TrEMBL record:
Coiled coil, from the record: 465-496
Family that this chain belongs to: Belongs to the TRAFAC class dynamin-like GTPase superfamily. Very large inducible GTPase (VLIG) family.
Superkingdom as given in the UniProt entry: Eukaryota
InterPro entries named in the record: G_VLIG_dom (IPR030383), Ig-like_fold (IPR013783), P-loop_NTPase (IPR027417), URGCP (IPR057365), VLIG_GTPase (IPR052986)
Domain VLIG-type G stretches: 645-881
Single GO molecular function: GTP binding
Protein name: Upregulator of cell proliferation
Sorted UniProt keywords: Coiled coil
């Protein structure tokens, strides 16, 4: 190891130390040069092996230790600095831990945190390592003091963001936001002393709120990175007897519910010193709900918190001073920092926060640099009273403050040497492709009719004819002749579909899907982001028109019906473009024309997307039909890609509309089903989750295919004469595909669910007749009480009695006898197949986090389904014999 210093004006570091910790890791320590401003220069550290340069990094002179590598090694993440963690690996279904709250080693700590975070568990940051209590099981660590074995949660979060790919970063930030955790805005790298603005990572976060300034009290929903908001920043200089994070939590929490948005030292593991998260800038938001008695602030506001001393992180501090409406500076040692304070040039309003003792010492100083305001805390003043003082100052500042979005901040960041995470070639190329498709969309219904015409009238007519082929309700005397007529009509319509020229929009979409794997994922995500933003704007405008029309008593009903139809057709998402591809594929496949050559690779591309966690539409929600050729070829391509580990089990959820089915699945498996902005799920979507290798033998499968369905008893379809028939069709199809069905019930008492359960029973009965015996679990949501399972035994027996009666009635209708019981047609246990989950939110949105009890109870369900899957496998084996 050699060290060279070539600049005469800059002295070499003192006490330079080289430590070879193992075969692959080197640690460097040094003491910064004296009598020189460390912010004026940097060192370049270069590693040579056998005379050849192998690695290089740049660090500022005041960074006296390279610690990232050693911390990541302790966590077992060192390889993921280059080979990033992805969403597929994180969502892999693993065996449940024996102790949910405790990791058995530092290397398992990150998996415990990620598993809890993906299931939006608000206690994810309060995690412990068993090595704290049992030194014998603790792995040797050079990065952690012997008396403080563990890791600071902020260090863990920082390390995981460094080791995650851009799409996992997005999912982590989104889940943290739902948990009401602060999210990284500027992510530091302690090795290079650089930081990154996490614009891409925050792109997926959308927020709803009600501003008091709006007269009609309408709900606003928008992407958080595009929303102009005033930013209030909190920083520290030198020592401070006050905890910024604790005060911020009190500032943001509503009166009824306190929540720790920012992690602070009073929480568990908070006494462990930070190693790599100093310089981290976290962001959160206060969003009013429209209730004047409960809202602390009338308008939404963003809040940032810089971890560490601003004298060590001037880049971050300068960024905040240029983007914030106000900076609250905490400092108790004004005299020692006098020179630094006098040198500050802050564009935003500066509020000095200190104790009364230190304020007396700094009277002359404050007269020189003249802060906007001073907040003094008497040592006898409690924190809640002081938080109210902070609130009053913030309210005063917000009355006249500039607003800025995170996207606009990204224009300022590069001038300060801050990296913007989405400013890379692959991401920007994908953005250009997506923008080219979406930039000219103004009227969504008109756009869909013009550019996505294959899924309109012709496809719906084909769907009706295909259903008639199966039912023959309008059959004539000669059935075969009638079936032949139907086939001819279907072929004619498909030829008509295939005769249309492929729109330039679809060529562009196919081109985006055919890119390299990384650019393809970016393209699909940009399409989703752009289309969701468009849909929100379009629906917001239509909702406003509909409200105005309803207020006008003279408004004719025909206009209202037209608005309702336009609202119903104003959803536009990636699924609509994929649906157009499916129709194009169906029509060209039947004719085997020249277009088919260009289309035949699409099923494999779609199968590869599914392996990354992309949800594919199984049932068209508008035409209530399945494009069989397309779905078959996609699944065949998926089977080929996963071979020989291609055993799949199917889990489906059913329930009434708007009862939280998608939320339940997302919490159970940590996934994020793509649902059109502003609407409930339509049709059915399927999403693939891999099973960990050690869990495969127990479940006897390699993947779980999760199907999310549209709600039964839909209000939109209730006016139609065949709405009951539609629900029957949907239920029969998904139950027929499933090994295990979850029936979601949004109440303890299921008697009111009689109509819906009757639909489910009919579906189960039909599966019995074709030799399949599925397993059924009931999930009762919004339940309360510590002994709810024990206290609802009577209700469960009544439910089973109701199910038996429905089964007998359904059996009579199907003409297969009337002595059938519910347990005759499927696997159901009155004690083990009922789950009780409390309410989703802890408090009132938009500031309420997801209830920890909801997350924990929902996360138990996947592992409770193991016996059902095993019984299903056993039954199928006996049936084959």
């Amino acid at each position: 190891m050699y060290c060279y210093f070539f600049h005469e004006a800059i002295p070499a570091p003192d006490n330079f130390e080289y430590i070879s910790e193992d075969a692959t890791t080197v640690r460097l320590n040094w003491t910064s040069p004296r009598k020189i401003d460390p912010s004026l220069y940097k060192f370049q550290v270069i590693m040579y092996e056998n005379g050849e340069k192998t690695e290089s990094m740049t660090v500022k002179s005041n960074v006296n230790s390279i610690t990232m590598e050693s911390l990541l090694r302790d966590l077992g993440l060192q390889n993921h600095l280059k080979n990033k963690l992805n969403l597929k690996s994180v969502l892999e279904l693993r065996k449940p831990s024996d102790v949910v709250e405790t990791a058995h080693s530092l290397r398992s700590l990150q998996w415990l945190f990620l598993r809890k975070l993906m299931m939006v568990n608000s206690s994810a940051r309060i995690i412990k390592c068993a090595s704290n209590c049992n030194p014998e099981t603790c792995e040797k660590s050079t990065n952690i003091d012997e008396d403080q074995k563990g890791i600071h949660p902020l260090d863990l979060i920082t390390a995981l963001f460094h080791c995650a790919d851009p799409f996992l970063q997005q999912e982590m930030a989104l889940k943290m936001s739902v948990c009401q955790f602060s999210v990284p805005l500027l992510l530091p790298n302690c090795d290079t002393n650089e930081c990154t603005l996490m614009l891409w990572a925050l792109r997926d976060i959308t927020k709803q709120f009600r501003s008091h300034s709006l007269e009609d009290d309408s709900l606003e929903e928008s992407s958080i990175v595009l929303t102009d908001l005033p930013l209030i920043s909190f920083v520290r200089l030198g020592k401070s007897s006050m905890s910024k994070s604790e005060l911020l939590n009190k500032l943001l929490s509503n009166r009824q519910h306190h929540h720790d948005t920012f992690f602070h030292k009073e929480l568990e593991n908070g006494n462990i010193p930070r190693k790599i998260s100093n310089g981290l800038v976290e962001m959160s938001w206060y969003l009013p709900g429209g209730e004047k008695s409960n809202d602390k602030f009338k308008e939404p506001v963003a809040v940032a918190n810089l971890r560490g001393d601003i004298s060590d992180f001037m880049v971050q501090f300068t960024f905040l001073s240029q983007t914030s409406s106000a900076v609250f500076l905490f400092c108790d040692d004004l005299e020692s920092n006098q020179t630094f304070l006098e040198s500050l040039r802050i564009r935003s309003k500066l509020v000095l926060v200190c104790t009364t003792d230190s304020a007396n010492l700094g009277d002359n100083l404050t007269q020189k640099f003249k802060p906007y305001s001073e907040i003094l805390r008497d040592r006898n003043m409690n924190e809640f009273k002081f938080a109210e003082t902070l609130q009053e100052t913030v309210v005063d500042i917000l009355a006249d403050s500039a607003k800025m979005s995170i996207e606009k901040m990204s224009k300022i960041a590069p001038d300060l040497g801050i990296i913007v995470d989405e400013n890379n070639t692959i991401c920007q190329n994908a953005k250009k492709r997506a923008d080219l498709i979406t930039q000219d969309i103004t009227n969504i219904p008109e756009y869909k009719m013009k550019e996505l015409s294959l899924q309109d009238k012709i496809w719906k007519e084909i769907s009706k004819l295909e259903k008639e082929m199966c039912r023959l309700k309008a059959k004539k005397q000669n059935i075969e002749h009638y079936k032949s007529e139907l086939k001819c009509q279907i072929q004619k319509l498909k030829r008509q579909q295939g005769s249309n020229d492929i729109r330039e929009t679809i060529y562009q979409f196919i081109s985006g899907l055919s890119c390299s794997p990384d650019e393809q994922l970016y393209f699909v995500k940009w399409m989703k982001i752009n289309l969701d933003n468009l849909t929100r704007k379009h629906l917001s405008r239509l909702d406003e028109q509909y409200r105005d029309a309803c207020k006008n008593v003279t408004e004719d009903n025909e206009h209202l019906r037209d608005l309702e139809k336009e609202i119903a057709s104003s959803s536009l998402g990636v699924q609509h473009f994929m649906r157009e591809l499916s129709q194009l594929y169906e029509s060209t496949h039947s004719q085997k024309n020249s277009k088919y050559t260009a289309m035949k690779k699409l099923p494999e591309i779609c199968a590869q997307l599914m392996l990354t966690g992309f949800p594919l539409e199984l049932i068209d929600g508008d035409a209530s039909n399945i494009p069989l050729t397309w779905i078959r070829d996609v699944l065949m391509a998926l089977n080929k890609l996963t071979s020989p580990h291609n055993r799949i089990r199917v889990v489906t959820v059913l329930g009434v509309q708007s009862t939280g089915k998608s939320t339940l699945l997302n919490t159970m498996f940590g996934v994020q089903f793509a649902v059109s902005s502003g609407r409930c799920t339509r049709g059915a979507f399927m999403l693939l989750i891999s099973v960990s290798e050690e869990f495969r033998s127990e479940l006897q499968c390699d993947y779980i295919l999760v199907i999310d369905t549209e709600g039964l008893k839909s209000l939109e379809l209730s006016k139609l004469a065949d709405s009951y028939e539609h629900d029957n069709e949907l239920t029969t199809v998904v139950v027929g595909l499933s090994d295990l069905t979850i029936v979601n019930i949004a109440m303890e008492n299921a008697i009111e669910m009689k109509d819906t359960l009757q639909i489910v029973v009919h579906a189960f009965l039909r599966m019995k007749e074709v030799g399949k015996r599925p397993c059924c679990h009931f999930v009762h949501q919004n339940t309360a009480g510590v002994a709810v399972h024990r206290n609802t035994l009577k209700e469960r027996k009544i439910l089973l009695q109701q199910l038996d009666e429905m089964t007998q009635a359904a059996a009579r209708m199907e003409k297969i006898g009337d002595n059938k019981k519910f347990t005759d047609i499927l696997d159901y246990n009155i004690d083990k197949n009922n789950w009780y989950i409390p309410a989703l939110w802890l408090g009132v949105p938009p500031m309420a986090p997801v209830s920890t009890s909801y997350s924990e109870e929902a996360s138990k369900i996947p592992f409770g389904l193991r016996s059902g899957l095993k019984n299903q496998i056993s039954y199928n084996c006996h049936a084959k014999e």
